[in-house]
Amino acid sequence: MSKLESLIAQRLLNVGDELEFTFREHLFRATLAKGGILYMCTHQASRCADVLPVLPGRTFLTLTDFCDTMLQEVLHEYVTRFSAFKRVKHSASGLSIAELRDRLQPTHARGTSASQQLGDAQHAALTRELEAVRAERDALRMQLRAITMIKAPLLY
Predict the structure, then answer these.
(1) Cβ distance 91 to 100 under 8 Å?
(2) pLDDT tens series, the chain, 156 aa
(3) For residues 28 and 82, is the Cβ–Cβ distance under 8 A?
């Protein structure tokens, strides 16, 4: 099982979440699918630039493959010592995949030890925090849609 699959299985990530990383002001994003697959990649050259789909139809099984492909095929950069787990972030929470990976619970443990109970409490707290961030994101999306609908006639 891949790390992304493990993060989904333990509800630290969800299918449909966006993962992102920046490199020299370029922002790359991908959507997380079932099985830990990344797809629907986009690229934004700067904060002011449009978000454009890149490599349509391509999927990635690992964060490293996603990052390397974006850097090499989109930016024509060949970077060494690029840690995808440290650089890629969960868009909704802002946490790096490395931070989320550190919160994974061992799946082979039996019984309920004190450390496992503490881990369960941390998992529950993180899940609540993530749900709150998602709710806030959804509310902001609705506000943006409403504003866009009001201002759109003024643009024409």
Answers:
(1) no
(2) 788 998 998 889 999 999 999 999 999 999 999 989 999 999 999 888 899 999 999 999 999 999 999 999 999 988 777 788 899 999 999 999 999 988 887 755 444 555 555 567 777 777 777 777 887 888 888 888 777 777 766 554
(3) no
Q: Which distant-in-sequence residues (6+ apart) come within 8 Å of 63 by Cβ? A: 3, 4, 19, 38, 84, 85, 88, 97
Length of the chain, please?
156
Q: Specify which residues 29 forms β-bridges with.
A: 20, 42
Domain segments of the chain as ranges: 3-104, 112-156
